Target: FAD dependent oxidoreductase
Amino acid sequence: MQQLDVHSDLTVVGGGLAGICAAIGAARQGSTVALVQNRPVLGGNSSSEVRVWVCGATAHGVQHFARETGIMGELFVENQYRNPEGNPYYWDLVLLEAVRAEPNITLFLNTDVRTLATADGEITSVTGWQMGSEKEITFHSPVFADCSGDGLVGHLAGAEYRTGREPRSEYDESWAPEIPDQNTLGSTILFYTKDAGEPVRFVPPSFAKDITETAIPDRRVIRTEANGCSYWWIEWGGELDVVGDNERIRDELQAVVYGIWDYLKNSGRFDADNLTLEWIGAVPGKREYRRFVGDHVLTQHDVLGQAEFEDRVAFGGWSIDLHPPGGVYASERGSKHWHPDGNYHIPLRSLYSRNVPNLWVAGRNISASHVAFGTTRVMATCAVLGEAVGIASAVAARNGLTPRQLATERFELMRNALRRADASVLGVVDDDPDNLALAATVTASSTYRRPAVEVSAGTMPLATDLAMVLPVDPALDGLEFLVDVREATSLTVELHDPLKPQNYLPVELVDSCSVDVPAGEKRWIQVPLSWRPEVPANAVIVLKANPSVSVHTAETALPGMIYLAHRDPAPDEQYTEQFREWKHVLRRAGLCVRVTGESSVYSAEKAIGGHARPYGGPQMWMSEDLAWDPEPTLDLTWPDPVELGEVVVILDDDVEEDLINLHHHRSPNEILPTLLRDYDLEARDASGNWAPVGSVRANRRRRINHVLDEPRSVSALRLTARATNGAPRAHVVSVRAYRP
Ligand SMILES: Cc1cc2nc3c(=O)[nH]c(=O)nc-3n(C[C@H](O)[C@H](O)[C@H](O)COP(=O)(O)OP(=O)(O)OC[C@H]3O[C@@H](n4cnc5c(N)ncnc54)[C@H](O)[C@@H]3O)c2cc1C
Model:
């Protein structure tokens, strides 16, 4: 046996999505990182060993403009390019390559951390056993990140934690039980089937469960076409000790899986003769165990109230998604869901231990109540928390701060670092004093100023109320819709304020009108609604249902515009995943609509400072049609020359498009059409000469860093868009400029 010592700036234990993003986040800040993972592959529950699909703040389209940016965003975009059909092995590769691309990370696979050493209440090292190599490795670093899901590191270090469910009285959470208990969400084993092309037998093992003696056939959906995560409900062990009883739980889950398979193959109720088992998980996917206690415990109120934390470092959007303790045998529904009205924030104070001063935590073990954990636990959210912890660990170390000091005394350092990394935060404007672009005047060769979609692709009866989200800057002074009217009628149209910049539902009525429309086809009707919000904001325009009216639809929509149809859900739909009164319609398409007058929604100024993601509007510059301005330019001009060392260009990767393809969701484009494909960047020196800074071809990424070989004194910077990946106009989310 060999004994090794590894010294780094940060040790990350656990190579699930939280750990991967923590390691990459810190490495990109310049920290050396040991990433220690006890499985042979990266990805945790998302890996090919478990095959849970990566969900996040988009909540399968319930939330809008909500896809994560930062490292998780890069992983989504890369996976969509390499793996649009969602092959679990290709996903493993995407993760492995992302880690290997970082020279500051040393990856230790198959290395199970088992013990640790402390001094004065701080962790000094953790030690793991590398299976297959007979190595005992001790990892030394000034700070540690517990991203192990189960939280063994924090537990061994004496960090305070919770398991089970808090009583309702503790945080006044309506979804918490009256009496506290140790129930958690249980674990799951998934399976995949394939058509063998000819009849194949299945002889069940002696331990297969006879599921006809359980509530499973009545209460759960079993279908021959189902695979993988469709069987998320094969859950058990929530009433046991999910870790201590892991072996027993695995045995029970395997018995259930083979019992379900026996039922499918041999009960005679399914057309399954040609089906065979292609894959069955050997490692139970664990949902819940320790939740560490930080300086803030995120609660149901924070999530549903979308609390505006000063120290926000990430956002989520999944429903509070809780499961009955009995799991697969429970007679209740397998899950209940409560969606927030839009994305909610997560504070840095929930990402470190309150009593072990050098311990960061990220993933399913953060400081949250059981109820709030029900939403933060999805993997893209775990990933953005990981990135925040990675960045925070480096920023704190650079400035000699503890996690608590960074969160409560010097949070501006963290905010700037998050923004610079293009991390997934909402509602944070770029006021970074290091960003030279903020002092520049910005102009564009053209700007899309008269929002209009005029080419009809068909009609849709106005059978229910139909809402259109319309970004407004600075004011709306009427709009027109293209309609067919069967018989003369009066159409009611309302304008609502969604009240929060990340929400897209009609909440507060601002204006309404009734428009008399004569019978006829293809008529543009004037809707005299007006609104001048205090700051640029989204309006939600609601066309009230009218049996005499059909609206014309279009194959495209403008950035920032989405459509929702009203429905009256059945009372028993409440708290199901499908429950929502306004359902997204006309995905990637829209209505024929013209906005009266000019709009500044897509002005060049949006690419400087701002939010770098949709927030009360799309927050980007958009040129006129390329047919009219084929190679649009965006210019930054400084009153006095600046010393330029680096330019960061952030392009539009269309965060409305859900890229969750690891199970059954599919997205049509391997490369997002809104991304610029080719562009050139030039700088002008004090004598007026232009020289290249960078030339990008065949781009498929959102963020491109241009580090200059040598610093240059420049008075202007120009981005020339040469081609998009399919969008009819050039989009630029942000241009940032930094000193060397
Ligand atoms: C069946 C199931 C269905 C789910 N459904 C969804 C869903 O549809 N979408 C979604 O996004 N989320 C879903 N979740 C939740 C999600 O999978 C977890 O919350 C998420 O994986 C947590 O991420 P993580 O990085 O914190 O931990 P994990 O994914 O658990 O990763 C932690 C990693 O650390 C490793 N590790 C643990 N201990 C040690 C140690 N001592 N030394 C070294 N390494 C260690 C583990 O092996 C693991 O690989 C589901 C979970 C399950 C089980």
Remarks:
- The radius of gyration is 27 Å.
